[in-house]
């Protein structure tokens, strides 16, 4: 299948994502500069992590208005798979492709460490290779990952099962101690209602090879490739 | 024309930065400071001819970029 990795000025996990999809997963992958409009036949778009536009104004705010985002919105509206990682998640929210907002971490600190996240759903293109309730160890590296939305929206997200990953401890328990950034409902990742757009703060591309002593992240990429294979991509 | 834009977190949205500033002020002896909210101030130079045009421009750019209306509210003054 073909992965299109969107590069904004300030993206810095674009090469890691390309490496994982091409070298580790053996798929086709290419970069798409944010000023392009043509998605070149990609089956899945990845908005990688980084600091697009230096995080000026709000993380992801300017990137969400980039020329390529109109194409991303049409692609998503047509059912195409879109995954946002870290800054990519922030961009998808700013573009209103995912609900809520990612605010400054409760500690006001940049947090860079391994966390555990519980897979809340396995019936999605992004988690099909996981076991229900599986606990993945994945690194986070962000300043603005504190998920916030209003009470009504949270109820809706729970009803629609849109919380895809929750921060937890090694044993899978979700509580304040295991929540690194103060995220509401311990949200580490979300999926849209239609189930084709997902965003997560943790970085699966940074833990997808045994060389890195952690392969938990590869399950996200395997899920996408398996899903596409079933759809004939 | 110029617009002065004030972007602030909506009521009820927790502001850890404002809390940190309040704590520091309290530590400096300002016990009378009951609360602090941190926001943004933005100046926009406009080449619009009329006040109505400027209003329309400002409303659009605030909604689309300057504020994230999920968490922030905004107001502006045009002069």
Account of the 3D structure:
- The complex is a heterodimer of chains A (233) and B (79).
- Chain A has 233 residues and is of the alpha/beta class.
- Chain A has one domain: Rossmann fold (3-Layer(aba) Sandwich).
- Helix content of chain A is 22%, strand content 25%.
- Chain A has five helices and eleven strands, in the order E-H-E-E-H-E-H-E-E-E-E-H-E-E-E-H.
- Chain A has a nine-stranded mixed sheet, sandwiched between helices. A two-stranded antiparallel ribbon of chain A has the order 5-8.
- The model of chain A has no long low-confidence stretch (mean pLDDT 97).
- By secondary structure, chain B is an alpha+beta fold.
- Chain B has a single domain (2-78), classed as Phosphoribosylformylglycinamidine synthase subunit PurS (Mth169, Chain: A), CATH 3.30.1280.10.
- Chain B contains two helices and three strands; from the N terminus they run βαβαβ.
- Chain B has helices at 16-27, 51-66, and strands at 2-9, 40-45, 72-78.
- The longest helix of chain B has 16 residues, at 51-66.
- Chain B is elongated, with a radius of gyration of 16 Å.
- In chain B, 14% of the residues are buried.
- The A-B interface holds A 57-58, 61-62, 65, 93-94, 99-101, 103-108, 148-149, 182 and B 13-14, 16-17, 20, 40, 64-66, 68, 70-71.
Keywords:
heterodimer, A: 233 residues, alpha/beta, Rossmann fold, nine-stranded mixed β-sheet, two-stranded antiparallel sheet, 5 helices, 11 strands, 22% helix, B: 79 residues, alpha+beta, Mth169, Chain: A, three-stranded antiparallel β-sheet, 2 helices, 27% strand
């Amino acid at each position: 299948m073909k992965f299109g990795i969107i590069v904004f000025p300030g993206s810095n996990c674009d090469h890691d994502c390309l490496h994982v999809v091409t070298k580790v997963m053996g798929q086709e992958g290419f970069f798409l500069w944010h000023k392009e409009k043509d998605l070149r036949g990609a089956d899945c778009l990845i908005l990688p992590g980084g600091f697009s536009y230096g995080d000026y104004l709000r993380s992801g705010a300017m990137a969400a208005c980039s020329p390529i985002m109109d194409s991303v919105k049409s692609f998503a509206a047509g059912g195409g798979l879109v995954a946002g990682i870290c800054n990519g998640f922030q961009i998808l929210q700013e573009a209103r492709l995912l609900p809520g907002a990612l605010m400054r971490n409760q500690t006001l600190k940049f947090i860079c460490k391994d966390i555990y996240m519980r897979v809340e759903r396995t019936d999605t293109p992004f988690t099909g290779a996981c076991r229900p309730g599986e606990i993945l160890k994945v690194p986070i590296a962000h300043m603005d990952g504190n998920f916030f939305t209003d009470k009504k929206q949270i109820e809706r997200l729970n009803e629609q099962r849109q919380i895809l990953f929750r921060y937890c401890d090694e044993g899978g328990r979700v509580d304040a101690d295991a929540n690194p950034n103060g995220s509401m409902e311990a949200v580490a990742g979300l999926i849209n209602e239609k189930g084709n757009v997902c965003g997560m703060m943790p970085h699966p591309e940074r833990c997808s090879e045994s060389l890195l002593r952690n392969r938990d992240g590869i399950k996200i990429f395997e899920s996408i490739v398996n899903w596409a294979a079933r759809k004939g991509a | 024309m110029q617009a002065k834009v004030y972007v602030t977190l909506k009521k009820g949205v927790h502001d850890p930065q404002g809390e940190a500033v309040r704590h520091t002020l309290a530590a400096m002896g300002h016990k009378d400071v009951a609360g602090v909210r941190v926001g943004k101030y933005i100046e926009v130079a406009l080449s619009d001819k009329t006040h109505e045009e400027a209003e329309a421009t400002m409303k659009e750019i605030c909604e689309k970029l300057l504020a994230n209306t999920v968490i922030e509210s905004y107001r502006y003054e045009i002069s």
